[in-house]
């Protein structure tokens, strides 16, 4: 939200097909450069893109083009419309003075290519200027104030003399026909008429790969003679300028729209025959983003191991793509109650530098009590979600209580003995696969840890992020 000291204008618009169905796409508003507002200590930069909603509507709140004290001043917005099914989107200039805090594109956007490509909104009237400079009164009183007293009658001038009218001359001989004119110049390009035409990606129905300044300086005296070898009213397509058409979105070898996690939506992926699907379970099959290893990858001893009360275990988990993480999970077999008790239990996330970045609340009451064969995946929500970049992270497991079976968690030995069996101490991100603290008296997750107080764990617990 912009500071209140910066005047703004809300621009709305609605785009429908001839049959009344809402269109989809976006409208981009681009200022000529970074805008500086010294009084508000703010610098604004970059375009504003408004996506059409399900009703084909857009709404964008923009700084007024006549904001006081703004640097630079005397500029206009470049508006570019990129609508699905309309390959030649419009591009035009727009002034948004603070006098009108809300405007609709249907009232001001050009529809006739012969109209000027620069739209202005009315400024102050002379009466409004008078009010701003101290005049007090109604418009009628202000108009009356403009009429002064009658002036003195001037002296009558002398009568002028009337000159004689000359005789009409004879018509001259018709001259020879002139030479043929030069070939006609281009009259317009994609609806634009000027001496030098600059097309944007939106003008030819292409995706804008360079979000730079779309303004240009118009040279004088150099008319366009041809565009892509054509003359007359030229209309270019994406293929004419070596671009992929926006209508190719989702097609084979076309353009894909990534979702919020940076992935291609399933609806835009090519169909995969069932016979080609690999027989490997992934975290997505369990509603998770990543895990330490497939729970069914190794059924050898120990299979499940009890955690040691008060010792913090770290399980390395690779996150293949950026994601917002809301939960952590372990596989719990239960514990031997009443011979053992649990007084505190926490899961958390640490980065590769062993700094804590998220944790759960105390989940003691949610841990299954009965030790059973097979167990169950126990998923615990984080106290607050966290956006993580792709990389490697630690899932922290801390359980405080009494007894030696507090509780049993899924584990694997990855070899002939209960060790990491020669696996590299750390991955390419510097994250160990399993670590544990030397201390066994912890009751909460520390804010930071150091490798000095850690050792490679001999118990390879399972953990996941979701």
UniProtKB/TrEMBL annotation:
InterPro entries in alphabetical order: Collagen
Recorded superkingdom: Bacteria
Low complexity bias locations: 153-168
Pfam families: Collagen
Renumbered residue ranges of the record's region Disordered: 153-189
Protein name stated in the entry: Collagen-like protein
Native species: Streptomyces xanthochromogenes
